[in-house]
Amino acid sequence: MKRMGRFAGADVLVTGAGSGIGRQIALDFAAEGARVLVTDADGASAARVAAEIAAEGGTAVSDRLDVTDQEQAGAVLAAHGCPRIVVNNAGVASDTPFPRLPRAEWDRDIEVVLTGTFLVCQTFLPAMAANGGGAVVNVGSINASGFFGNDAYSAAKAGLESLTRSLAVRYGRAGVRVNLVAPATIATPIWQERIDRDPTLLERLTKWYPLGRVGTPEDVAAAVMFLAGPEAGWITGTVLRLDGGLMAGDAALVDEILSRDYLM
Ligand SMILES: NC(=O)c1ccc[n+]([C@@H]2O[C@H](COP(=O)([O-])OP(=O)(O)OC[C@H]3O[C@@H](n4cnc5c(N)ncnc54)[C@H](O)[C@@H]3O)[C@@H](O)[C@H]2O)c1
Predict the structure, then answer these.
(1) Which family does the record assign (predicted)?
(2) Ligand 1 centroid – CA 140 distance (Å)
């Protein structure tokens, strides 16, 4: 693992970093020299990722942080100090169809995705501002811009885009940039239940993607690091879609309309 890099010596907090996209973000920041605070509601998984980073020669500590618990967030700030970069990645998504969606599942998606980010930002941003600035990257979703089957999750991710803009304006003069990445399908454990129902699912989804594949956690980590890093010094309040072209047009529909090879 490289010890120098774009983030040499920077303290980076990642939420929901015990699995999937968050884990990759933690690994990749560490590979570019950051000191990573790996957090997750599941403290054991956070500890495993921190150990993985240490085994690669990187610098990481872990702590349990349920983003819906502001007291825990305060305790993490008190224990580890103020980070330069915060990545709000923790998320859950209910799959229950709308007519049967229990209020508790609606509340849970909103609570973890939207309220959790609010609570983490309310805890850390004033300290980052007082410390001279930094960067926040929120992990949103293309579900904010269209319906893909998760009503509550979509609403929460749309709210997260709005929160990103308000915090960007509010904290801009204090030197804190706030941006959001909006991925489409990324192969992670969040898909496992659906894959158990249909093992060919991710393969079948590729037909909807102009770039011919679903995304990887590495695709997301690269964009998060761009927005958190010095190359993005004049970018704030923005939504960066990472979707293999999904939202640019409907590749499967174009196949139907043109009924011929439209590349020729
Ligand atoms: N995988 C995708 O297709 C995809 C697409 C777009 C956006 N996203 C977003 O990316 C983020 C990461 O998703 P993933 O695919 O890696 O999922 P994942 O299930 O692999 O990881 C999510 C992590 O968040 C943690 N978590 C859940 N609730 C939490 C809470 N209250 N506090 C702290 N941690 C909590 C879980 O323990 C888990 O480690 C989520 O915000 C998700 O909405 C994922």
Answers:
(1) Belongs to the short-chain dehydrogenases/reductases (SDR) family.
(2) 10
